[in-house]
Amino acid sequence: MAGELTGKVAVVTGAASGIGAATAEVFVEEGARVVLADVDADAGATLAERLGDAAAFCRTDVSDADSVQAAVDLAVERFGGLHVMVNNAGVSSRMGPFLDDDFADFSRVLGINLLGVMLGTQRAARHMKDHGGGSIVNTSSISALTGGGGVISYRVSKAGVIQFSRSMATELAQWEIRVNCIAPGHIQTAINSYDMGAVIRHTQPLQRHGSARDVANAFVYFASDRSAQVTGTVLPVDGGTVAGQPPHVMRDVLEQAMRRG
Questions:
Q1: What is the CATH number of the domain that holds 65?
Q2: Residue 163: what are its φ and ψ, rounded to 5°?
Q3: Is the pLDDT of residue 136 over 90?
Q4: pLDDT, average across residues 208-227
Q5: Can you list the alpha helix ranges (DSSP code H) found in 186-229?
Q6: Distances, alpha carbon 237 to alpha carbons 76, 182, 206, 209, 254, in Å
Q7: Is 235 a domain residue?
Q8: What is the domain count for the chain?
Q9: Domain span at residue 54?
Q10: Is 175 exposed, middle or buried (0-12, 13-18, 19+ CB in 10 A)?
Q11: Other C-beta atoms lying within 10 Å of the C-beta of residue 145
């Protein structure tokens, strides 16, 4: 797959760590030039220096339109264009019972996770529509595809990303702009810092522990010309979690029930 993104320029938000950093690294390996957009100036600048001349850092608050525009402008000015926008920046929300939630973090979570995706899509698309189109890829979560309690603001924001991505896929297609969405599962990052072992055993059919680079490889597909006929798609990168529980989980439940009976 070497050189899959040769000639392309990308902006990756939330690029200073986790899935965003892995995506920026793989994009550069595949020949792209990348603007790393993140609020963490130290980590972002350090990664850009490590990636060399193919990368540039721009301190970016994705919930602020002017800040997002600055990242897009840097891509155009430094590298000559913008072909790929990865709206990846995100934060989690308060864990706890819904009936006790005071929604103190609601505006911040929605501002970063949903408005940030909307602003990134808008500002990238404004450039792309006059320059032959492009690919926009947004990060959602499997929590948007399944029910469940806890982190309600996060779940709602990520579900909004999916609906927004599908809507934009239809609206922006007239300018050859593709919009797709990736829904990562249990990937060890700063936002998912819990012990994955038990969670994977009980919820994920593939017992393999996924990595940020697994998700980054999916971003490469959507950024590349291999997905030229693909838009409005939601791709879980989750080891099969959305498909259903591992067979051993139900087997264990039945065995316990039979022992009790």
A1: 3.40.50.720
A2: -65, -40
A3: yes
A4: 96
A5: 196-203, 212-223
A6: 30, 7, 11, 11, 29
A7: yes
A8: 1
A9: 9-260
A10: middle
A11: 18
Least confident of 42-56, 134-148, 182-196, 224-238: 182-196
- Token pair for residue 139? 């990060």
- Looking at the DSSP bridge assignments, the partners of residue 49 are none
Q: Which two tokens stand for residue 3?
A: 């050189």
Residues annotated as catalytic (active site), given as ranges: 154
| Domain-embedded: residue 133 | yes
Residues 63, 31 contacting (CB under 8 angstroms):
no
State residue 195's pLDDT score: 76
pTM of the complete model: 0.93
Secondary structure of residue 24 in the 3-state scheme: helix
Q: Is the pLDDT of residue 81 over 70?
A: yes
Residue 139: inside a domain: yes
Which percentage of the chain shows pLDDT scores above 70?
97
CA neighbor of 211 nearest in space, from 230, 236, 233, 237: 237
The residue with tokens 């990303």 is 161
Comparing CA positions, the residue from 138, 146, 131, 219 lying closest to residue 177 is 131
Residue 239 lies in a domain: yes
Indicate if the pLDDT at residue 261 is higher than 80.
no
